[in-house]
Amino acid sequence: MIKDTLLKVVARAPFQLYYEGNALAVTATNKVGKFDILPGHADFFSLLNSGEVIIETDSEDITIPISNGIVCVRDDEVLMFLNI
After folding, report:
1. Which helix (H) or strand (E) holds 84?
2. For 46, which of 18, 30, 55, 64 could close a Cys bridge (C-beta 3.0–4.6 Å)?
3. From its phi and psi, is residue 24 left (phi > 0), alpha (psi between -120 and 50) or beta?
4. Beta bridge partners of 11
5. Model pTM?
6. Got the DSSP string for 10-62?
């Protein structure tokens, strides 16, 4: 996998860091429905609905149950603030 094809992801809550590192894809749910964030995704900001955030890495899938959150995507960086 070429480094430029990975996302840089930070998923955190006010007092907990769920994940920080590289990922192949991130899946979450907003008001419109389930969506995926892949490398090269357009700049994006959204409120997240309750459900699961799935962070797909090259070694495992990390599943985080959430009640709500926000996500910001810019230049292959994904910042997620969960359960806020």
Report:
1. none
2. 30
3. alpha
4. 19, 80
5. 0.92
6. EEEETTEEEEEEEESEEEEE-SS-EEEE-TTPPPEEEEE-SEEEEEE-SS-EE
**How many distinct structural domains can be found in the chain?**
1
pLDDT interval class at 65 (50, 70, 90): very high
Q: What is the domain-level CATH number for residue 30?
A: 2.60.15.10
Where residue 5 falls among pLDDT bands split at 50, 70, 90?
A: confident
Given this model, what pLDDT does residue 4 score?
Answer: 60
Please give the radius of gyration of the chain, using alpha carbons only, rounded to the nearest integer: 12
β 16-23/7-13 pair status: antiparallel
Q: Which residues of 61-72 are buried (b: 16+ CB within 10 A; e: fewer)?
A: ebebebeebebe
